[in-house]
Amino acid sequence: MVRILAIANQKGGVGKTTTSINLAASLASIGKRVLLVDLDPQGNTTMGSGVDKRLLDHTVYQILLGEQTIAKVRLSTKPGKYDLLPANQELAGAEVEMVSLEQRESRLKEALQAIQADYDFILIDCPPALNLLTLNGLCAAHAVIIPMQCEYYALEGLSDLVNTIKRVRMGFNPSIRIEGLLRTMFDPRNLLAQQVSDQLKQHFGNKVYQTIIPRNIRLAEAPGFGLPVLYHDRQSRGARAYLELANEILATAS
Ligand code: ATP
Ligand code: MG
């Protein structure tokens, strides 16, 4: 059965998009059928997958408004070997235009139903806000991956996100759970990072992934080439870390 995972954290720049692209590519390289949904008007997931966001006929925007089907909008990415529902700036308008629609929180969930049998994994890259787009991501998902940097304010922001997930559970999606917390851009020589990491494990126990994503320049460079890091530098620590994460996720029951 398909596993639908939202990658969410309302804090900006914590590694949501890097995780979405590289987890999608890693799972696909292991032979899984993956759809990656770009739910952020910034379109970084789209560009980082090698698709030019300025040249799109259709995006996830039309899917949310019910004007197109996913089958028409999805693209296959090379060499990432996963499918992509792309996004661009147009999506910024969806927030306002969806307000008058019925069941506006579950537009993505409804749309995914038609194609979810085509995939083993659907990953949803959420924008850095607890807005209607993120809400659509959370309503559609079975579980949430929360990337976070181990820095001073990280835990504070986490409680807002955990409360939002609780609200989604009560209101729209009773079975949603936290799949895992992912430590990103980790520098083991940084004492504060170690301390925050320890606190995280105390609070969330085995919800914290064992895999740690190190700070790695190859991960930051790869989107400039429109490539997942696996196809930019397969031997890099970043590439190996995301493959390890894919295997850790595959080893846990859905
Ligand atoms: P936003 O909230 O704007 O959507 P985000 O949470 O999706 O941001 P990313 O875009 O993935 O975060 O990462 C932010 C920046 O940090 C990017 O420039 C990215 O290339 C870089 N980056 C992410 N992860 C790493 C890493 N492990 N090592 C080095 N650089 C990284
Ligand atoms: Mg992003």
TrEMBL record:
Q: Which residues form the AAA domain?
A: 3-178
Annotated coiled-coil positions are 91-118
Q: What SUPFAM superfamilies does this protein's entry cite?
A: P-loop containing nucleoside triphosphate hydrolases (SSF52540)
Q: Which InterPro entries match?
A: AAA_dom (IPR025669), DNA_Partitioning_ATPase (IPR050678), P-loop_NTPase (IPR027417)
Query: What keywords were assigned to this record?
Result: Coiled coil
Q: What's the superkingdom here?
A: Bacteria
Q: Which PANTHER family match?
A: P-LOOP CONTAINING NUCLEOSIDE TRIPHOSPHATE HYDROLASE, PARA FAMILY PROTEIN CT_582
Q: What is this protein called?
A: Chromosome segregation ATPase
Species of the source: Nitrosomonas eutropha
